[in-house]
Every structure is written in C-alpha cells, then in structure tokens.
UniProtKB/TrEMBL annotation:
Domain of life of the organism encoding this protein: Eukaryota
EC code: 6.3.1.2
SUPFAM superfamilies: Glutamine synthetase, N-terminal domain, Glutamine synthetase/guanido kinase
SMART domains: Gln-synt_C (SM01230)
InterPro entries (UniProt xref): Gln_synt_N, Gln_synt_N_sf, Gln_synth/guanido_kin_cat_dom, Gln_synth_cat_dom, Gln_synth_gly_rich_site, Gln_synth_N_conserv_site, Glutamine_Synthetase
Residue ranges of every copy of the GS beta-grasp domain listed in the record: 22-102
Family stated for the protein in its record: Belongs to the glutamine synthetase family.
Organism: Phoenix dactylifera (Date palm)
PANTHER family the record matches: GLUTAMINE SYNTHETASE, GLUTAMINE SYNTHETASE CYTOSOLIC ISOZYME 1-1
This protein's encoding gene: LOC103695875
Keywords carried by this UniProt record: ATP-binding, Cytoplasm, Ligase, Nucleotide-binding
Catalytic activity of the protein: L-glutamate + NH4(+) + ATP = L-glutamine + ADP + phosphate + H(+)
Protein name, entry field: Glutamine synthetase
Residue ranges of domain GS catalytic in the record: 109-359
Amino acid sequence: MEAMSLLSDLLNLDLSDSTEKIIAEYIWVGGSGMDIRSKARTLPEPVSDPSKLPKWNYDGSSTGQAPGEDSEVILYPQAIFKDPFRRGNNILVMCDCYTPAGEPIPTNKRYNAAKIFSRPDVAAEETWYGIEQEYTLLQKDVNWPLGWPTGGYPGPQGPYYCGVGADKSFGRDIVDSHYKACLYAGIDISGINGEVMPGQWEFQVGPAVGISAGDQLWVARYILERITEIAGVVLSFDPKPIQGDWNGAGAHTNYSTKSMRSDGGYEVIKKAIEKLGLRHKEHIAAYGEGNERRLTGRHETADINNFQWGVANRGASIRVGRDTEKNGKGYFEDRRPASNMDPYVVTSMIAETTILWKS
C-alpha cells in the first residue's frame, strides 16, 4: 500500500513549485485511421499558441504510416488543450502528420478539412457542429460488454437508456471522469448519457466551429482511451459491437450554418438536405468502416442504401428537430456517421456538400 501511495504522490507532483519546464503530450492519428498515438516531451516554459510549439517526428514504420527505409513522419502541432492527467501547466497537443518534405501523409485527414474550412464562402457561414459520440465499454480479457454475464446476455433493451442502478448502468465512474477531464482540458463537451445497449454510452462535443470540432472530438477520444486504460477496461468504437437485437453505435452529427440559423433558414436547410441526398453514396463511403452492419433500417437507423429525411424521425438519414420546423430556422442532424468515423472527414464533407458543391 505504501508503495502505491508513493507512486500516486509522484504522479500528482506539482512541477510548477520547482521548475518552469512543462510536459507536452503530442497526439496524432495512426495508420488505421482509428488508433490514437501519443508521446511526451519537455518544453522550457508554458506555451499557449500551437504555432510556438516545435515540430517533432516519429517512426511511421511502426504505425503503418511510412516504409522502414524512409520512416520519419513529422508532427505539426495544431491545437492545445490542458492536460487533465498531469495538470499544472502541462498540455495535450493535437497534431497532424507530414512527410519531411512537408506533404500531408495519406492518413492526414485534417489537412484537407482545414483547406475546406478556410475557403471564404465556408468561413463566412460559421459552420457549427455538435457531434454525439457513442462508444461501448468492454471487459478486458473477454472483449464482452461491461455488465454483461460472461458468454451470456443481459435482459433485452429498454431499461438501460439513461438508466440508473447497479443492474442497468455499467461504467459510470469512467463516464463521469471523462466528462470532467474534458471540461478541464477546454473541450466543449456538452453532455453525456447512458445508451440503449447496456455498457454503451455517449458524450457530445459542441457546438464547435469548423476545424475545431474535429480537433476537440479527437482529443476527447484520446482522453477517454487514457481513462479506460487506467480503469482496465477496453474502449470500442465499433459501429455494431454485438450482432443481433442490440443497438449499434453512431456519431450523429448536428450541423448548422449562419444562413440556417437566420430567418428563412428552414428553406436553406431543405436545400442542403436535398444536396446531401444527391451525394448519399459518397457520404456513406466516408462515414466509417463497418457501417453497413449498423445502418439496417432497424434500431433507430435508416437503411444504408436509402436516403430519407424527416422531422423528429429517428429512422431517417437526416432528422430535423420540431423546434427547427416551428421556428423556421435552426439545425439538422445527420444520423448516418458511424461511431468510428473521422470527424475531420465528416464535418468538412458536410460543409463541402452543403456550401460549395453545385448539383
């Protein structure tokens, strides 16, 4: 016990008493497009502007992002968050990845998204995003959801969504730690809830503007992955972790532009939805791996091959809220993205289709 408490004392050491130096944890997306990698370095003093941070490099041949004979990948710091694990002046740094010659590597989805968001017609529309990230917590050695009997199934869905109680809610300590850690880090996390399938949860990030929605969601995922690591629980973003009569996991993306939020916005929304319908196949192809297992037309989804929208309809591809219809302006929800989608791809593609694309 004494050793454990000494360890925890050391982990919680406040460095600011003894040194100006800080620790910066550089975070990036690995070769699979879903694996989050990170490593830390010491900086001489606190930094609040990403452009003042040094670039860094890593071995891309070990992350599936470069060949062994030319393995160096360069990290460009893009966004800074406070580090909820080390606290003090220490920081988390979201980076994207380039070749030594300065070309974005193929898995760098941020680069193209930032280009779209910096287009004057997109920037003028102040695109807002609210992303609902669903995920499943799994028992470590059996890869079976938290709270489920080993090799067996719990009672059918119904009591678990926003449920409370030891027989309905599994992993709340992880969820609440994550909620507070995100607020501490400076992420615009706007809520959490228990989901329809037991062991499944959701957090929401937003409203966030443009490229920052992607930065914030990736760092929120990173923080969650770190907390589950501490708790000895496995985090899954699989869109359909359990086959059968169980809900899948999505990343519903709520979206509005300045024109949609202004008077007469409902007409702008309807035009935008029409464009999204015309590019349905392209969007589905970019909305996450394995999504066909989730978008079956059951369990609050629309069939993957059919595009439909409706007011307050959770079986539609795009849902418009009753308030938006009533007020004649507001936002809509794209229900198609899977839980393992890349937020850089999804947010920028929605902006591109609704603002830049000419049908």
